[in-house]
Amino acid sequence: MITAPTSGFSARALEPFPELQPGDDLAGAITDALTRTGTELMDGDVIVVASKVVSIAEKRYVDLADVTPGPEALKLSATTGKPAEIVQLILDSSDEHFLATAKGPIIARHTLGYQLTSAGIDRAGTEGAWLLPVDPDASARALRDALIAYTGAQVAVVIADSDGRPDRRGATVISIGAAGVAPLRTTEHGGRKQEETFTDLIAAAAGIILGQRGRGAPVAVLRGIAYEASDDGVAAMLHHRP
């Protein structure tokens, strides 16, 4: 199916946004922020949410004091300078890994099927870490359904995660979960068709305003994007599905 082209769209951060505590109602927090900022969702809007706040809401915290590094984690820690406990979590969360350079970063294929720097493990100060949601596509569907119930607008949700690439410095933003929007877009020009990782493009567009660590704006509203409605999720386009 050829997806209609998008000639322009708007993107805005939903801020100020409250600091979530483990177990908080993420959809409720988004709805409250919409009210405070005078933002009204419209049918077709795409809500892009940073994976970390999803992990916080789903209580995916790990106390590093409870992690016992094994020999491989200790060796990788000495090579990369990463705390051995974090390295052990990376190994526990992945099927395979390699170093982008002689000293890292560690690029790992998460058990969910994503290739991510550090298997998507996010440090929480010096004492803890946040793991990815157990099933990011399911998290996106639950959040989408709750936002529709709260607001009445037929919206889509993309869960975005910061990620470094093995061939270059710096971080970008990719999608790890989606609901209501097809993960792949097929375009056609001159009789030639091309599949695009569409939810990654959406996540990257939102990433321009969400920023990276410390930005404090974990939710963005994108409006005007043409897309095919689907609940296939990001897992549907992975080469290595869980």
Q: What's a quick, concise take on this entry?
A:
This protein has 242 residues and is α+β, with helices and mostly antiparallel strands.
Explain what you see.
The chain has 242 residues and is of the alpha+beta class. The strands form four sheets. It has a five-stranded mixed sheet. A three-stranded antiparallel sheet has the order 3-8-7. The chain has a three-stranded antiparallel sheet with strand order 4-5-6, with helices on one face. The chain has two domains: 10-60 and 135-237, CofE-like (60s Ribosomal Protein L30, Chain: A), CATH 3.30.1330.100; 61-130, CofE-like domain (CofE-like fold). The protein has helices at residues 26-37, 51-57, 71-80, 84-92, 136-151, 198-210; strands at 10-13, 46-50, 61-63, 94-99, 106-110, 115-117, 122-124, 128-130, 156-164, 171-179, 184-189, 192-197, 219-223. It is built from six helices and 13 strands.
Q: What is the CATH architecture descriptor of the largest domain? A: 2-Layer Sandwich
Content-based structural category: alpha+beta
Would you identify the CATH H-level superfamily of the largest domain? CofE-like
Q: Could you describe the largest sheet, including whether it forms a barrel?
A: 5 strands, mixed
Q: CA-to-CA gap between the ends?
A: 26 Å
Mean pLDDT: 93
Question: Low-confidence parts, pLDDT < 50 over ≥5 residues?
Answer: none
Beta fraction? 25-35%
